[in-house]
């Protein structure tokens, strides 16, 4: 930490061992986790045994000779943090890739210490996204860490970009890991079009770059985030995509270091490795770091080690799923969860929020049962029919990810749907709330539904339009 | 001169040290790096090479760093002033640390050495005493903190002198003890104990028999845990493990609660930091924080200290138990501790057991759970440590090693079900898979029969049958269709739903419903039991659904109302009239 880099650097020129990802050589006075260059390529000390030092070479060891120059830099990986990070696009080492000038801020070691838990403040500021599947059912809070669980074919990068732009953050820091070049350009364009470049910093590792380099990205992003949140007291939003590709890089490294793999070929330390990143999300007295990440799933399987460990670390997850009834991607109300929502629901939002949320999800779950019944060819009761209709509207008008309305409107919409299809008993909300918010024209809404049923062809045509 | 050595190898937080003298397994040593000292524990010895796990980040460590050994195991310091504190896994006082970020190698006293305590002697000159016996007491919050004969002391001693009533700091001697060999020692208010060694300063460990009120109906009524009992809560993420633990921590009827946040989220601990000083202790009316100690090693803090944190918490619990206090120890989550063991075992290149966990995992967990329990002290008083741990099974698979190992030792099993959580039925404890072995104990059965309600156990067994039969009926309805099964099937199913919605489910965020005293649980169970026992008349199946929904709605309103207040009575009357509509006498 406080060690000064030596004035004259020793150059080593004799490498003892080379594997696909590591080089070992004899050297003295070398510190653990110190950076070095091997034939100009960045490398980091991962193991010291007597005078034999093993380095992980981020870009791979292809073409490295046993006689190349090895120079130790006397410091762990660092980032230059300062106001000039604004509007910059950088690579995994924190070097500009946007033809801009070099960074001039203060050199700071990345992957620094944890926040003392007693110095954290309690997250209490709502982040509104306009997406009812998030705001209504899974409200986000500053200082939270939450991933999107999505299959690779789902539009998670678009959803995340929307969330980022609507969240009213002072600062957005994007960490792209294994991003396709198209997605990289997409983000760049979206930020440019929205005119928010000044509050953006991006650390980009595309899938053209060596995969092991990705391992540096989250720490770089968070070092920058901590600078803005702690020093500048800003509300920082960190976007990490895609964490599954980060984990894949971890497993490559652990495999090449001969570690015994645990579940799904992932290293045994996966939980700690991910926790070190996600736990950097924090609400400070002033300023905050909120992390929204993407974890891509394979066929919706959340029992795989990556989503599983992630779920245990993060404060909930937003589960994207395709709803075939409305032919749109929705935020699944069953598998999604925001653990911090209780801190703002009913406190920063209207008093009926939690009741509306619970009743809506319960009725939607009844609809899922009715749907199973229908698929199995059983007769449906009147209640089944009504839940199914409710579910259709609820998905289309509230759960779909293309919704963009404010909180008040979401709640009113939900009450309207309740009254349209159900009796007060069936909605079963606390009496005092019910009497205040149950739509006055409930009967009118029901009548309207009946009228629509008179012309079933129209309704059907509408449904098909959507697909 | 203590043994010294120097670092010769580093892989992550595992270091190899070449030593110049004797070293013992699990001995603590300090590594000097620039101006800080990093704490480490010896975990393997091979000739002159010693392997140690470092409790901090090893970034910047170099070969040749000086290592000093301490000649003792990992210890905690015990004495008055621990209540209401927030410790890290190694018992550093987090509030006493400076700065927003944790500084590597920073160590703080676990409590104030300057504060003066009002000491009152309980023993007198010439009393014969042994380890754990009470010499005096000081008031700590509401607990009479006993100053004990040092727990490490062996054999019988005699009180040679004891100080007069007055104010003393923890480091001032309060008594002098002598033994038959003429040895004499000074006793202070603080003492040390190695965390991985179970504390023994009591007469015996009788069978625990008295149900502990947690306020959670699914636990207290359906599968009760007892004072001095053990239980565990396995559940996939998002099933409400943490909320359940918080509810129990806030409402359990015990004298003291120790919360060990082991490798979990920092924000969850922050919630306790912020809320417990505000919330009232339902037993004493004081603030909850006064009866609470928090050991906090969140998931981003160093892995080795995570393992230490559960032992630190247990040792502090055992120490207070020696004072005749009822303690509830909560650990969230023991899986993270097991993972910490796995990481180290992996780095030491040991042959792995199932899922790459170390082979002795089962034994380690068993030894730990065995430290909980009810004890009878030398003076005839009793104290208890009730332990409730959570387990985070990988992929929600209950057949993984940590869950299976824990199942072998814990007496209560509260399995959280993904299915219940998905349909927002909280607490999501699965009644069909879960169990409490204590219900089979003769001592527990007798206690309930005599002190709670005659035939209570049969009543609960009946309710469990209702749930099981309801599930069977539901399966039949799903296979055959609503109108192809007899109406009784619907009634059976809806009675089980009534038990579920009206009794098992509890709203953790409702001020009234979040915790239910035993008396009220009995009252509500009575209402529900009677409905389940009654026969109703229906002509067609959908009448059953509509009717029971109405009944459930009223019972839910009852649960949200203050016990026996006006609204409660109003809903009760409403319930009776609704029941009369269809009840067959």
What's this, in brief?
The complex is a heterodimer of chains A (467) and B (585). Chain A has 467 residues and is of the alpha/beta class.
Structural notes for this entry:
The complex is a heterodimer of chains A (467) and B (585). By secondary structure, chain A is of the alpha/beta class. Chain A has three domains: 11-72, Elongation Factor Tu (Ef-tu), domain 3, CATH 2.40.30.20; 78-343, Rossmann fold; 353-466, no CATH class. Helix content of chain A is 36%, strand content 22%. Chain A contains 14 helices and 21 strands. In chain A, strands 9, 13, 14, 15, 16, 17, 18, 19, 20 and 21 form a ten-stranded mixed β-sheet that branches. In chain A, helix 6 crosses helix 7 and helix 8 (353-375) packs across helix 10 (407-421). Chain A starts with 10 loop residues before the first strand and ends with a helix. Chain B has 585 residues and is α+β, with helices and mostly antiparallel strands. Chain B folds into four domains: 4-73, Thrombin, subunit H (Beta Barrel), CATH 2.40.10; 109-191, OB fold (Dihydrolipoamide Acetyltransferase, E2P); 217-440, 3-Layer(aba) Sandwich (Rossmann fold), CATH 3.40.50.300; 456-584, Orthogonal Bundle (Bovine Mitochondrial F1-ATPase, ATP Synthase Beta Chain, Chain D, domain3), CATH 1.10.1140.10. Helices cover 32% and strands 24% of the residues of chain B. Chain B has 14 helices and 27 strands. In chain B, strand 22 (373-376) and strand 23 form a beta hairpin. In chain B, helix 4 (303-321) packs across helix 5 (334-347), helix 6 (361-369) runs parallel beside helix 7 (401-409) and helix 10 crosses helix 11 (487-504). Chain B starts with a strand and ends with a strand. Strand 5 (41-49) of chain A pairs antiparallel with strand 1 (4-11) of chain B, so a sheet runs across the interface.
């Amino acid at each position: 930490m406080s060690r000064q880099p030596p004035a004259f650097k020793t150059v080593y020129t004799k490498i003892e061992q080379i594997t696909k990802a590591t080089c070992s050589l004899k050297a003295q006075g070398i510190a653990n986790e110190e950076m070095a260059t091997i034939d100009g390529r960045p490398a980091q000390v991962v193991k010291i045994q007597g005078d034999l030092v093993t380095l992980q070479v981020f870009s791979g060891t292809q073409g490295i000779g046993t006689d190349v120059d090895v120079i130790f830099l006397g410091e762990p990986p660092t980032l230059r943090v300062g106001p000039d990070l604004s509007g910059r696009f950088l690579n995994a080492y924190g070097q500009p890739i946007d033809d801009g000038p070099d960074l001039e801020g203060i050199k700071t070691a990345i992957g620094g210490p944890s926040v003392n838990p007693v110095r954290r403040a309690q997250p209490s500021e709502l982040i509104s996204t306009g997406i009812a599947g998030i705001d209504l059912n899974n409200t986000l809070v500053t200082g939270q860490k939450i991933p999107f669980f999505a299959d690779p074919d789902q539009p998670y990068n678009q959803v995340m970009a929307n969330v980022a732009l609507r969240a009213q953050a002072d600062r957005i820091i994007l960490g792209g890991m294994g991003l396709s070049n198209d997605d990289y350009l997409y983000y760049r364009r979206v930020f440019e079009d929205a005119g928010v470049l000044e509050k953006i910093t991006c650390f980009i590792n595309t899938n053209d770059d060596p995969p092991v380099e990705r391992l540096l990205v989250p720490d770089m992003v968070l070092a920058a985030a901590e600078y803005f949140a702690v020093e500048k007291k800003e509300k920082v939003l960190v976007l990490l995509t895609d964490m599954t590709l980060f984990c894949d890089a971890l497993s490559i490294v652990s495999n090449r270091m001969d570690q015994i793999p645990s579940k799904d070929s992932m290293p045994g330390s996966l939980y700690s490795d991910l926790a070190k990143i996600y736990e950097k999300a924090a609400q400070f007295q002033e300023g905050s770091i909120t992390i929204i990440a993407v974890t891509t799933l394979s066929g919706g399987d959340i029992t795989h080690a990556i989503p599983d460990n992630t779920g245990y670390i993060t404060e909930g997850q937003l589960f994207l799923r395709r709803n075939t009834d409305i032919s749109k991607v929705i935020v699944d109300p069953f598998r999604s969860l925001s653990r911090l929502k209780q801190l703002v629901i009913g406190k920063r939002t209207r008093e009926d929020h939690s009741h509306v949320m619970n009743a809506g999800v319960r009725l939607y779950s009844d609809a899922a049962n009715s749907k199973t019944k229908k698929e199995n060819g059983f007769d449906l009761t009147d209640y089944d029919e009504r839940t199914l209709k409710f579910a259709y509207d609820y998905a289309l008008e509230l759960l779909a990810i293309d919704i963009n309305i404010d909180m008040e409107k979401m709640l009113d919409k939900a009450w309207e749907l309740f009254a349209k299809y159900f009796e007060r008993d069936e909605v079963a909300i606390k009496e005092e709330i019910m009497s205040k918010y149950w739509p006055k024209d409930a009967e009118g809404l029901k009548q309207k539904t009946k009228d629509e049923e008179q012309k079933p062809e129209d309704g059907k045509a509408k449904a098909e339009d959507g697909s | 001169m203590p043994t010294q050595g120097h670092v010769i190898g580093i892989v992550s937080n595992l270091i190899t040290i070449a030593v110049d003298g004797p070293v013992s397994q699990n001995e603590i040593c300090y590594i000097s790096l620039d101006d800080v000292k990093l704490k480490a524990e010896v975990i393997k010895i091979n000739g002159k090479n010693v392997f140690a796990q470092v409790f901090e980040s090893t970034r910047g460590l170099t070969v040749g760093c000086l290592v000093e050994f301490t000649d003792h195991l990992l210890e905690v310091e015990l004495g008055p002033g621990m209540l209401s504190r927030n410790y890290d896994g190694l018992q550093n006082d987090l509030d006493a640390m400076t700065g927003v970020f944790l500084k590597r190698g920073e160590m703080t006293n676990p409590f104030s050495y300057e504060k003066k305590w009002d000491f009152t002697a309980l023993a007198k000159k010439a009393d014969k005493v042994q380890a754990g016996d009470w010499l005096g007491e000081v008031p700590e919050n509401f607990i009479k903190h006993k100053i004990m004969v040092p727990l490490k002391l062996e054999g019988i001693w005699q009180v040679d002198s004891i100080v007069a009533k007055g104010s003393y700091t923890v480091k001032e001697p309060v008594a002098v003890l002598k033994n038959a060999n003429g040895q004499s020692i000074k006793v202070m208010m603080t003492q040390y104990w190695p965390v991985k060694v179970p504390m023994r300063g009591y007469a015996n460990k009788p069978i625990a028999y008295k149900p502990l009120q947690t306020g959670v109906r699914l636990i207290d009524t359906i599968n009760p845990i007892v004072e001095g009992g053990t239980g565990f809560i396995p559940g996939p993420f998002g099933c409400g493990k943490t909320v359940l633990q918080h509810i129990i921590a806030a409402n359990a009827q015990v004298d003291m609660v120790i919360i060990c946040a082991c490798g979990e989220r920092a924000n969850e601990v922050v919630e306790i930091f912020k809320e417990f000083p505000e919330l009232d202790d339902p037993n004493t009316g004081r603030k909850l924080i006064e009866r609470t100690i928090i050991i906090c090693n969140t998931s981003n803090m160093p892995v080795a200290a995570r393992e230490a944190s559960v032992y630190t918490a247990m040792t502090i619990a055992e120490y207070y138990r020696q004072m005749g206090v009822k303690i509830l120890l909560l650990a969230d989550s023991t899986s993270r501790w097991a993972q910490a063991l796995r990481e180290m075992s992996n780095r030491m290149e040991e042959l792995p057991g199932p899922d790459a966990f170390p082979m002795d995992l089962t034994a380690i967990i068993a030894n730990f759970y065995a430290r909980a329990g009810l004890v009878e002290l030398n003076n005839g008083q009793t104290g208890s440590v009730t332990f409730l741990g959570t387990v985070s099974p990988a992929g929600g698979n209950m057949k993984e090693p940590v869950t299976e190992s824990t199942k072998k030792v814990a007496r209560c099993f509260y399995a959280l079900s993904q299915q219940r959580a998905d349909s927002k039925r909280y607490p999501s404890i699965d009644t069909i898979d879960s169990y409490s072995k204590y219900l089979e104990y003769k001592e527990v059965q007798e206690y309930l029969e005599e002190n709670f309600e005659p035939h209570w156990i049969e009543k609960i067994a009946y309710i469990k049958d209702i749930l099981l039969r309801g599930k069977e009926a539901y399966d039949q309805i799903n296979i055959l269709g609503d109108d192809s099964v007899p109406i009784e099937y619907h009634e059976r199913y809806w009675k089980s739903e009534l038990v579920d919605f009206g009794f098992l489910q509890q709203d953790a965020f409702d001020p009234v419903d979040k915790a239910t005293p035993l008396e009220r649980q009995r009252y509500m169970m009575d209402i529900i039991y009677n409905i389940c026992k009654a026969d109703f008349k229906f002509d067609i199946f959908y009448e059953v659904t509509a009717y029971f929904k109405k009944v459930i709605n009223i019972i839910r309103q009852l649960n949200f109302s203050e016990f026996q207040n006006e609204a409660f009575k109003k809903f009760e009357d409403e319930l009776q009239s609704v029941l009369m509509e269809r009840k067959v006498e």
